[in-house]
Amino acid sequence: MCRHLGYLGPVESVESLLTDGPNSLMRQSWAPTDMRGGGTVNADGFGVAWWSDVGVLGRYRSSLPVWSDPFVTEGLPTIRSEAVMIALRSATEGMPVERSASAPFSDGRWAFSLNGVVRGWPGSLVELAENLPVSDLLELEAPTDSAALWMLLRSRLRSAEPEPALISLVHDVIARAPESRLNMLLCNGSGMWATAWYHSLWTLVDENVAIVSSERFDDDPRWQEVADKHLVNAIPGKLVVTPLEVSVT
Question: Where is the Glutamine amidotransferase type-2 domain (predicted)?
């Protein structure tokens, strides 16, 4: 599948968030510890998103493995932010390996990543996609399940808060593709929301920092594993974990 990490806290360089720790996200690109049958490496591209102090979102994506892209050492050390998302890709068989297929996906405000797979794609999402405006479909960044999920979520965020938007999307997809794996990560620069549906998810939250990550990158005792089929809302000083198998009203 993939790996992803979201960070809110004191200003950090994007490079340090990628490389810090004995089980850093960089190391997880070639030696992940908890893929749960979703592949063995995460080498099919990567991307980063970051927010400035005025809320402007910057983004860099690549189809290269994160360890071989020169921008990691030449550019990422110069990017510092209080809000960052990093995603490593392990492409599902049959889906393209190209820059546009690498998360994070974005609309200039939100950034989104998927660690998972929609079973039966694209057929399983046809019914849901039929409800999208044609303009949304024409903006699909890549012919992948993750890009399609982002289109569906972005549409829901226009009329709903992140929690109900994510919960309803998980329920709608699982109803049509029950064996899907849906660990989604969403951030707007001031808050983070994530789902744990089959794949591993961890959080580290205290008064100063909030981190949501597919795996722990060190042995800090503040890390907490998120139980399967739960939704996470994390900001510095606040962590809320809610069951996903609840009614959506």
Answer: 2-249
Instruction: Find, among 114, 174, 176, the residue nearest to 145 by Cα.
Output: 114
| Cα gap 80→50, rounded to integer Å | 8
Are 201 and 232 in contact, with CB atoms under 8 Å apart?
Answer: yes
The band of 248, judged by pLDDT with boundaries at 50, 70 and 90, is very low
Of 2, 151, 183, 4, whose CA–CA distance to 85 is shortest? 4
Domain 2-113+183-243 belongs to what architecture? 4-Layer Sandwich (3.60)
pLDDT at 39: 74
Residue 64: the pLDDT is 96
Q: How far apart are CA 92 and CA 2, in angstroms?
A: 9
Burial 10-26 (b: 16+ CB within 10 A, else e): eebbbbebbbebebbbb
CA–CA dist 108, 121 (Å, integer): 26
Residue closest to 183 by CA, chosen among 175, 173, 17, 191 = 173
Tell me the β-bridge partners of 238: 235
pLDDT tens-digit series, residues 189-201: 999 999 999 999 9
Q: Is 65 left (phi over 0), alpha (psi -120 to 50) or beta?
A: beta
Is 187 an active-site residue? no
Catalytic pick among 1, 2, 169, 196: 2
The model carries a pTM of 0.95
Q: Half-sphere exposure of 9 toward its Cβ, with a 13 Å CA cutoff?
A: 20
